[in-house]
Amino acid sequence: MDAKDRLLIWKTVIALQAIDALKTSSKIIDIAKQNIEGVIADEALLDECENLKNPADIVAVRMFVNIIQNQFSLSQFELVQIRKALFGGLEESPELLRTTNLSKKEWALDGLSLVYPKAAKIQNQLNKLFEAETLFDFDGLDSKQVVKHCASFISSLWALHPFEKFNTRTVAIFFIKYLNYRGLALNNEVLAQSPVYFRNALARAAFCDGKKGFHKTNRYLERLIKKIILGGRTVLDPKEVHLYYDPNGVVLKVEGAEQKEQSASDRLDEKVSVAKKAPAKKAAAKKAAPAKATAKSAPKAPAKKAVAKKGAASKAKKK
Prior knowledge:
This protein is mainly alpha-helical. 58% of the residues lie in helices and 2% in strands. It has helices at residues 3-15, 26-36, 45-48, 55-68, 76-87, 119-135, 143-160, 167-181, 188-193, 195-206, 219-230, 264-297, 301-318, and strands at residues 103-105, 113-115. It has a two-stranded antiparallel ribbon with strand order 1-2. The protein is globular, with a radius of gyration of 27 Å.
């Protein structure tokens, strides 16, 4: 894995903390930079967590380590292992499925709540979902069908909300590893730039209110996945996923609807690029130094003559 690949993964895991409105600190930027430059080895990254107090920083490091590990199985066991790896020590019994019924208000739903499946049904639905996915064959599918299936599977998994909390970040890492498992080339830059869009798209995929004319749709999630695996110039604006978004400019119904992607990972991008450009700036400064000295030591008279010559030349042109 080269420095560019590392940078993209670090940007992704840092940005994913925005899913739960969490902010990373400058410490994680320094750790990421040192890992990208080879100062901190992959094997030593988890040791760095002992010196971190911000949960978002700790989870970002653990996400990076989990992604670069090639181990993956298409199973509930894998989902639980990912959650344990990310949130172990940050909550009690991270491996357990939720035992309470759950609902949560979502910005994309104009503050309405998603009501997730009852706790008693989760295990049975997980079994059915993973059994069907294990048997599903990608052979013979075109790119559009692949995108649709991936969106359907990951939205169905997220809609179960199998854990008490931290579901979206757990599913996000499972999602990245699932796409790799399916042999799909990923553009990690997309998810790094669109964590809030990802969250909103999952919410819309799970929401239905027939009386108000709203139905479940994977349209936005498909748009995201298409850009991740196929590329393209599609702009992913988190506002467009809102129930009352109008592309013609009508103000969204919800208060504070100007939801923007957080650019925490951009700090890493800037820091790494600045580090690369620093030597060039020093070299330029050295070259500039003799020139300034020459300019100071040069007599003023020739400069005036040069101005006079220019004036004479412009008069000659006018004639």
